[in-house]
Amino acid sequence: MPELKITYDIAYPGEPAAGLIPFTETITVIVESGDPGSFHGEFESFFLRAIEEWYDGAHVTIRGEE
Questions:
Q1: CA distances from 47 to 16, 20, 22, 32, 39 (A)
Q2: What is the pLDDT of residues 33-47, one digit of tens each?
Q3: Neighbouring C-beta atoms of residue 6, cutoff 10 Å
Q4: pTM of the full predicted structure?
Q5: Domain ranges within the chain, ordered by starting residue
């Protein structure tokens, strides 16, 4: 089975009044076995929620999805 590669795009709008500058970031998760288990999309959604929590206030999307 080919590896599973999921790319997340992060866009933080910033808060200039608080001294927080806007930024963008990209995170890629690679599952070498190609199968993380679980239901279809569950693994991807779990990481999306974790990244949203880590980058509080940022807009996180899975590349290819809007």
A1: 28, 24, 22, 16, 14
A2: 888 888 888 999 999
A3: 17
A4: 0.84
A5: 38-66
